[in-house]
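User: two proteins, same treatment. go.

Assistant:
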Amino acid sequence: MPSRSDDPLARALEEAVVRVAAAVRAVQASNPVVLIDGRSGAGKSTLARLLAERWPLRAAPQLIALDEIYPGWDGMDDGVERAYDQILRPHGRDLVGTWQRYDWVAGKYAENHAVDPSRGVILEGCGVLTPRGARIADVRVWMESPEPSRKRRALDRDGELFRPHWDRWAAQEVRHLRRDKPIELATLIVTVP
């Protein structure tokens, strides 16, 4: 079995978490906001989890995945708007935010979750890096990865549940790329194989 140092993906993610953690420290705030965007399968969730585990500040961050907020397979834009209105904007004004988890099985929103403005936030998901969100975020990460690698990882992760929705989700990603230009808004660009 190869070591993590022999795994190009693990090595790229390790380098990325070190860079993002350094950027968080450089903000010199107790409650920075980190946005992690990229297309499906790019490694956003893994990077966010690693960053949360190695958060360089005293108080643990609040890790929120847009997958918990999108209202279904056609809901990227709506999920991003909800995240802005319910998480980012209140946090930026030092107010408690409250977001609702979307229950994909029931097809409706479920329980509420509070967001403490005194603690940092890591918000990850496709579409999160928009001009509105960028104005509030302290660290803005765009993750880049080749489509064959992304697709393999996404389908390995979500299996047959995601396969029939890959193209329609990808169309929403392309619309986001053209409209919001997230790469231009990023303070860090992370490339993974």
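Protein 2:
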Amino acid sequence: MRSADDDLTARARIRNAALELFGAEGASRVSLRAVAQRAGVSHALVLHHFATKEGLRQACDDYVISLVKGAPDADLGDTAGLAAMLEAGVAVRRYLGRAFLDGTSEAAALFDEIVASTSQWLEQGVREGRVQPSDDPPARAAMYVTWLLAPLAFGEHLARSLGTADVHDMRTLLRFSRAGIEIFTRGVFTDEHALDAWDAVRDERGPR
């Protein structure tokens, strides 16, 4: 007779197999039978635990989001906290990237939560003198988070640009992360010429 512990182990094994396949190919392209084969269990057992593919995908979403929110010392508005999320297993990172591309409601809620927390963190930094003031704090917070999460969705293109086989390789992860932090810390342009030009276009073509 199968014990409760066996059920839990099988459920986790099926979920992990789904994370790998859904992240690599997208949930719409993966069958429950393929997940069962990857997990080394029967199709019937997958149905027993999750009932449908949507149920399995929901379980994957819940698991990934629980990892993000439960990361040790994870302040989602802090670079260190987001780094902890990005340092999760490769299957988790790929799955999360696919979720953002597919536009699940859970991924949307997580993104909004991270942006809100990041906005608070940046504003605290402004008050403490660690962060430059912004003309548009909400937009800056959203762009900051978008940059941090972009490799999850554009990993293949980033890897190609950096000449590496896998953007999830830790050496590559550290390389592009450091480049981004350098941009945020030191800036790119030496004066406000580009910003002034952009403002001129906005003033000329913006809402009247």
